[in-house]
Request: fold
Amino acid sequence: MAKRKNVELPPGQISGQAGPAAQPSPSPSAPSSYAVEALELVKTYPGKVTLFNFSLNIPEGGIFGLLGPNGAGKSTFIRILSGLEKEDSGAFRIFGQRPSAESRRRIGVAPQENCFHPLLTCMENLLYYGALYGITGKKAKERAQELINQLGLADKKNVQASFMSGGMKRRLNLACALMHEPRLIILDEPTTGLDPSTRRQLWETVTRIAATTNATVILTTHYMEEAEALCGKIAFVNKGQVAAYGTPRELKRLAGRELLKMKSVPGEYAKLEPLIKKLPGAETITVTEHGIVVEAEDAAALVSAVTQIFMDNSEKIIELSVSRPSLEDVFLKLTGAQLKEATKNEAAGGN
Ligand SMILES: Nc1ncnc2c1ncn2[C@@H]1O[C@H](COP(=O)(O)OP(=O)(O)OP(=O)(O)O)[C@@H](O)[C@H]1O
Ligand SMILES: [Mg+2]
Reply:
């Protein structure tokens, strides 16, 4: 169990990315202000440390991505920021201010689980959320109508939320978070479960909102292509900590250059590793239970030699690919697990 600790966080003292886990960031220029500064947050549930010395600075403006497998702690961090959970120790600031009712008024959260009332219509839900923030009467109706138009909900304005499609529900969930024109918009997996075309429509909506409102958007997702398309900066979260931080380009550089991935049966990779290591040009070799990943400047040039090693050792190759680094590769390199596999482990109760 983590020891309780109070950390005072003087305004402006932290620059760049706090915490050793975030050190890989090669970002040279620290922004002048942050939407969120979190330092050494710890959160435990009975028998489970969910955030452990979680440190992260999120720059003001633009879209920031939080990526990580199921159970990494992303939503817990969001719940702490939004005041739904209390951290055990550590500190955080929102736009330079300690957490307070006032600082939290600046946040709009669209949680992972839809939070509108299923028996109310789209319009009624928006008016309800407006009222929670003191927005009532004509102003509330105008704002709700504006959001209904912006988010393509016009057809559903008077439809009971429970009768709307999954994609429309996600839009309504987002609209509820925007009623009070927050400066910090937090979207917890806004596109999970949506079909590819609806997902892209939502990407456009989120990008437009970020561009036109000057708000800072924090977005969690399991979709690497989504993070790459939308986010100026990304933090990888794994096992309650920030494992890496940077722009998608900076992060991909962490994964090295080209990758040759091989999978075989029986898959005695430990035996193959030292043999592959001897090949000129094979820079780094990572062995996982899912195969061998060879990093090289020219991975394609290694294919025949590596294949020969597999064959010489009676390994039947069942998968072979050459690829340029992707964000998924960065995650694999940092954690030794694929996002999907880490997801399965969490579902099975591990972490
Ligand atoms: N109220 C709670 N009580 C006990 N354990 C909890 C509670 N909330 C979260 N946890 C545990 O904390 C860990 C982190 O959960 P969290 O929801 O923050 O992960 P996540 O990164 O958002 O995952 P996902 O991608 O699945 O949404 C999980 O193992 C989860 O089971
Ligand atoms: Mg979550």
Notes: Residues 1-32, 341-351 have pLDDT under 50 and may be disordered. Residues 45, 48, 50, 68, 70-76, 112, 351 surround adenosine-5'-triphosphate (ligand 1) (CB under 6 Å). Residues 143 and 179 are 7 Å apart (CA to CA). The chain has three domains: 1-106+182-253, 117-175, 257-324.
